[in-house]
Amino acid sequence: MATSLPPTNSSNDPKQLHVVMFPWLAFGHIIPFLELSKFIAQNGYNVSFLSTTRNIQRLPTLASHLSPLISLVKLTFPRIQELPHNAEATMDIGTDDIPSGPSSKITKKLAQCEIKILGPIRKFPCIINSSVI
Q1: 1 domain residue, yes or no
Q2: Would residue 94 count as lying in a domain?
Q3: Cβ atoms of residues 49 and 36 within 8 Å
Q4: SS3 content of the chain, % helix, strand, coil (to 5)
């Protein structure tokens, strides 16, 4: 489902903390999470930034001094019948096309996808997530 994440570090050195960033699939979440990732990396911490392949491709290029500290992890977005083909962020979906809100069928399916993704990464000591789950 994802390219591999770096291993967790069991060292007690606080600079060895590895932060996993997993924003909701909306650029109003993705861009602020990327900025927070840069801030965390500038302070010497390793960051894995998780998003879909298409969303990672849309991100601005990281500064060369931050590239070694920020891993952009591409997730395979499952096909959801009710969404347009290649819809991987809210900007890919017309506001009139689908119902919204926490009870909508689409939101529930996206939450199910996120639960599957978050399961294997729970071993990391610091996960920052902005989803509906």
Answers
A1: no
A2: yes
A3: no
A4: 35, 20, 45
Q: 10 lies in a domain?
A: no
E strand or H helix at 20: strand 18-23
- Find out whether 46 and 21 touch, Cβ atoms under 8 Å: no
Question: Residue 116 belongs to what domain range?
Answer: 18-130
pTM assigned to the model: 0.73
Cα separation, 23 vs 4, whole angstroms: 18
Please name the amino acid found at residue 16.
Q
Q: Is residue 78 part of a domain?
A: yes
Interval 64-91: pLDDT, tens? 999 999 999 888 777 777 777 887 777 7
Which candidate, 94, 51, 95, places its Cα nearest to that of 74? Answer: 51
Question: Measured between alpha carbons, how far is residue 112 from residues 54, 69, 80 in Å?
Answer: 20, 29, 11
Angle 86-56-54 from CA coordinates, rounded to 5°: 10
| Total tally of structural domains belonging to the chain | 1
* Nearest CA-CA partner of 20 in 112, 93, 121, 103: 121
